[in-house]
Design goal:
It is a single chain. The chain is mainly α and about 550 residues long. It has 3 domains: about 150 residues, HUPs (Rossmann fold), CATH 3.40.50; about 160 residues, Serine Threonine Protein Phosphatase 5, Tetratricopeptide repeat (Alpha Horseshoe); about 160 residues, DNA Cyclobutane Dipyrimidine Photolyase, subunit A, domain 3 (Orthogonal Bundle). The chain has 25 helices and 5 strands. Strands 3-2-1-4-5 form a 5-stranded parallel beta sheet, sandwiched between helices. α6 packs across α7, α8 crosses α15 and α17 packs across α18. It is globular. The N and C termini lie close together (about 10 Å). The mean pLDDT is about 95. It binds flavin-adenine dinucleotide.
């Protein structure tokens, strides 16, 4: 059996594959479900809280918030909201300055929108992760809150945090000497159209393979278009409730911790211009995409120079817009039909919905295969690969100086825009762990530290290692046929004519190449492809996860 090498970088730490299998067998989600079901009623209704997390930063079509507001209205109880800021959480996930800033900006806008409804949004602070549960529990108990609403987060750490809160509630209510006022927690599925964990194979197991999942998802939505229905924002708190909650208004919106701030003001303003915060900006972006780009999406989506995709990922990952809002608009462009299959919709529309279905499946995967959120590959055999400690290769990858134009262009885009086109994400990831044989987790972490749209589900599934080795020259020739994307991001190659731009070292004579000031390829693609395939095969042959 192959032995796993000790990781030399902190981002590579993870539990053993045996532990991973244990966690999969007893999922935190199932444990949380048990805790939720064993709650007792708090007896009386006092203040009602919606607890925002960093994935539902909007008041429109927010399932948890809507449930809280409906309950508050029916009970004539005051509604307040909270957000628990934890700098250590940003550090732990390696959240990028762009995403941290985007979250803080959206929190500020959400606070104003809520205040217009006389609902306060209180910002709580937990400097360390260990303080998360005590901080929120103290706030709930100290402020006469009887009912807490929130939306599910499907990642292991977040589910475990919620379990600990529920254990506090359940232990206190079973302790007859306890003087703590009890509270009740309701969690809602908000991130997807189809509740994660409900799409099952014939054998009753959660689906993991995209094609059958996509087919079943399309059939389900066509049969139940009500799945796309949205819920309204909360209505105003009554004057009495507003008065009772007076001390909660005016809470200070958190600012990004020092270590996740932009390097300079110019960088901040450039990123903010590319990604303006707010629900209104998201809706505008959606409509522009649907009106101007959707029809051609099937033919243009893989061409990064066309900039023809929606660029909604940052908004979807922070929950600034909901997927149901998005698909309700898409439906209008499909003559009101919720049949998004290739038979029921144009190629552009059905192709775009297909991408959103990947997003849905990946949430089901995180929830039902929790080890994928523990820094381990879905196919655990890949944990037995002996990766190379190629520091120079890694640095050149990160800085876009590998001498491979398509890969370098992608890496320069992510640095400049906190975003990278999907075709490039596929190419640069393959190059890192196949051609350089650098542990894919370093790249996964770099994406988290750089992307504005970082999303654990999409990122870990996107980085899932496989035997497919992308050829960046033929990929560029196919997807960037005019070389415009390469020329946009690599100024050294701006004046290179014709097809030489895809592989200047091999296609120009030496004198011409030397004048460019662009590096020659760091490794030979064909040789390193062979090396990777042999390494994977030999290391995984006897692997017993
Ligand atoms: C290695 C790698 C890492 C990735 N990391 C992330 C990440 O951290 N966050 C993230 O949101 N996406 C990630 N993706 C998926 C995809 O690249 C981005 O969602 C997409 O490029 C965002 O651009 P867009 O909004 O213009 O997409 P569009 O083409 O307009 O698609 C619409 C929406 O569908 C979803 N989507 C599109 N493609 C995918 C996909 N392959 N998987 C899952 N959902 C998808 C996104 O929410 C996207 O906003 C990753 C892909 C790879 C290969």
């Amino acid at each position: 059996m192959s032995k796993r090498k000790e990781p030399s970088h902190p981002e590579l730490h993870h539990p053993s594959t045996k532990r991973a299998k244990d966690v999969d067998a007893h999922t935190p989600y199932d444990q949380l479900a048990t805790c939720l079901a064993s709650q007792q009623s708090p007896g009386e209704t006092r203040n009602i809280l919606h607890w925002f997390r960093s994935k539902d930063l909007r008041i429109h079509d927010n399932r948890g918030l809507n449930a809280a507001a409906t309950f508050a209205k029916e009970s004539h109880a005051p509604l307040l909201c909270a957000y628990l800021n934890c700098p250590a959480e940003f550090r732990n996930h390696g959240t990028s300055p762009a995403r941290t800033d985007f979250i803080c900006e959206n929190l500020g806008l959400t606070k104003s929108e809520l205040e217009d409804l006389d609902i306060p949004l209180v910002f709580l602070e937990a400097s360390e992760r260990a303080d998360l549960v005590p901080t929120i529990v103290k706030f709930i108990r100290g402020n006469n809150i009887s009912h807490v609403f929130a939306n599910y987060e499907y990642e292991v750490d977040e589910l475990r945090r919620d379990i600990r809160i529920l254990e506090e509630v359940n232990n206190a209510s079973s302790d007859s000497d306890s003087h703590c006022a009890g509270f009740h927690v309701s969690l809602h599925h908000d991130q997807t159209v189809m509740e994660p964990g409900t799409m099952l194979t014939g054998a009753g197991k959660p689906m993991k393979i995209f094609t059958p999942y996509h087919k079943a998802w399309l059939a389900e939505v066509k049969a139940n278009p009500g799945l796309l229905d949205t819920v309204p924002p909360p209505s105003k708190n009554s004057p009495k409730a507003k008065k009772a909650l007076q001390s909660f208004f005016g809470s200070q919106v958190p600012t990004p911790p020092e270590e996740t701030q932009f390097s300079c003001e110019q960088e901040r303003s450039q990123i903010r211009k590319l990604w303006p915060p707010g629900h209104h900006a998201a809706i505008q972006r959606l409509n522009e995409f649907l009106n101007d780009k959707l029809a051609d999406y099937a033919v243009t989506r893989s061409n990064p120079a066309k900039n023809s995709t929606s660029r909604l990922s940052a908004y979807l990952s922070a929950g600034v817009i909901s997927v149901r809002e998005v698909l309700s608009e898409v439906r209008k462009h499909n003559s009101g039909s919720a049949d998004f299959s290739s038979r029921g919709a144009d190629a552009g529309l059905s192709g775009w919905v297909r991408e959103l279905v990947f997003r849905e499946l990946y949430r089901q995967t995180t929830m039902t295969t929790p080890h994928t959120a523990m820094n381990l590959p879905q196919n655990l055999k890949f944990d037995f690969v002996q990766w190379e400690n190629d520091e120079e290769g890694y640095d050149r990858w990160e800085n876009g100086t590998l001498g491979v134009p398509f890969v370098d262009a992608g890496m320069r885009q992510i640095k400049a825009e906190a975003y990278m086109h999907n075709r490039l994400r596929m190419n640069v990831s393959s190059y890192l762990y196949c051609n350089l044989l650098v542990d894919y987790r370093r790249g996964e972490r770099y994406f988290a530290e750089t992307l504005i749209d970082w999303d654990l589900n999409n990122n870990t599934q996107g980085w899932e290692p496989s035997y497919t080795v992308f050829n960046p020259v033929s990929q560029a020739e196919k997807n960037d046929p005019g070389g415009e994307y390469i020329r946009q991001w690599i100024p050294e190659l701006r004046n290179v004519k014709g097809k030489a731009v895809f592989d200047p070292y091999h296609r120009l004579d030496k004198k011409e190449f030397d004048k460019l000031g662009y590096p020659e390829p760091y490794v030979d693609w064909h040789e390193t492809k062979q090396r990777a395939l042999e390494r994977f095969k030999s290391n995984m042959k006897d692997a017993e996860p």
